[in-house]
Amino acid sequence: MPSDTIFDKIIRREIPADIVFEDEHLIGFRDIAPQAPVHVLFVPKTPIATLNDVQPSQAEVLGRLAIAAADFAKQQGFAQDGYRVVINCNGHGGQTVFQVHLHLLAGAPLGRFGT
Ligand code: 5GP
């Protein structure tokens, strides 16, 4: 079945989003329910449901997501202060949209996991 998540609809401009980056491979837009002062999602345009589904031949997809996030942090001036990137996978990871995506969280000290 073809991928048709809410993120596919954003990529196709069928629903609005605050888009901060786009190229031929991926799109970046602000999360609708931000968990930090800066919360941007980077999403590949290739349909891939979860991190489990990324094939070795698609390794570049993950590199592009990470580099896009770092470039955005540099452009916005918070790269040196720091930020967090997260990929949630399936139920225990808290994934709710089944098109693989990378969260970029920044703009304040985020604390450590598990504390
Ligand atoms: P996940 O839990 O799958 O890792 O992350 C999905 C993220 O997508 C959540 O942080 C959620 O707030 C965000 N989200 C869900 N629907 C929309 C939407 O329609 N627009 C935007 N911009 N973000 C969304």
Automatic annotation (TrEMBL):
Short name of any one Pfam family annotated for the protein: HIT
Parts of the chain that traverse the membrane: none
Alphabetical list of Gene3D superfamilies matching this protein: HIT-like
InterPro entries in UniProt: Histidine_triad_CS (IPR019808), Histidine_triad_HIT (IPR001310), HIT-like (IPR011146), HIT-like_sf (IPR036265)
Record-annotated HIT domain positions: 6-115
Descriptive protein name: Histidine triad nucleotide-binding protein
Species of the source: Lysobacter koreensis
